[in-house]
# Entry
Amino acid sequence: MSEQTIADSLMDNAKRKKEIVRVSVIGIVANIALATFKAVVGLLSNSIAIVLDAVNNLSDAASSIITIIGTKLAGKQADRAHPFGHGRAEYLTTIVVAVLVLWAGITSLVESIRGIINPQVPTYETVSLVIVAAAVLVKVVLGHYVKGQGKRLGADTLVASGEDATMDAAISASTLAAALVYLISGVSLEAWLGAVISVIIIKSGYEILQEALSKILGERVDADIARAVKEAACAVEGVRGAYDLILTDYGPQRLQGSVHVEVDERLTARYIDQLTRSIQLSVMRSTGVVLHTVGIYSSNAVEGSDASAIRSALEQIVAEEEYVLQFHGLYVDESLKGANFDLVVSFDAPDRHAVLSHVIDVLQERFPEYGFAAILDSDISD
Ligand SMILES: [Zn+2]
# Structure
């Protein structure tokens, strides 16, 4: 990558971040305004559902604020103490948001249950209902806008909060519907509706929490990214195959790791050095992934009859054995009568080592004069 394009992409990145923050700020201001109006209306008309709707909007605003703080913290440069950067701060702030949302949901639920046991008579004014109706409209427009911008900027958090806003519009609409039902029939659904809203809030809090915890635990890398990295590596001239891609998530868009590639056994260190640098650059350019290490498997320049027999035996094993997903890095030394390879065995296998031993036994039986050295690989990425 030329320095010019790196500078360009950094600038684009900074611009993108600024726009994301701008859209989030619009969302925050709108949510605080809506929450204030609804809280006043809800308290004046003695409506739990409308007050809870306000709480919901307020927790949305708070999550957006914490999200912006998280993005800022995560953007801090790597330093001696945190050489992989501060990207995971974003997951930690997401947990704070989730706890906040859960807290809002649980308190709402408690309030609603109290209302169900001890019903309060709501007193709706026409003006209150007009305000709630206007709030529904604002929420629909806001949701549409935030989601659209999120898609344009490729920001998942914005898309999610846009969808959340659309769901909130439905919640607000239902408080309005409950008010109309009360005015027409005299039946108050308020507290029950409040309970339903609370459960929706709790559910979304739980989902946010689960996702952040899973990211911190370390997830399987996204299949599209894994494929894109392997494709970029394989596109470099001299690479015969890319395997064992290990990527560690140090925060959104901060993947780092290593990959193994197969190359012709005759390549010199000088050539391989250039090759691995090309892979690192090309992967960085096309996916943004930082590859620290590119491991090398030597593959036979020309496969003799033994080598191709062993290769087809392995291909057959992969096709037939339930838990064997792949083999790679096969190198057969026909003069020394030795072969080595890596075997990828599924996590579903009850005993993964036993699967490898079994495969070696099968090969040993078919090629008794050969010695096999195999490594058990995990199914780490697609
Ligand atoms: Zn391997």
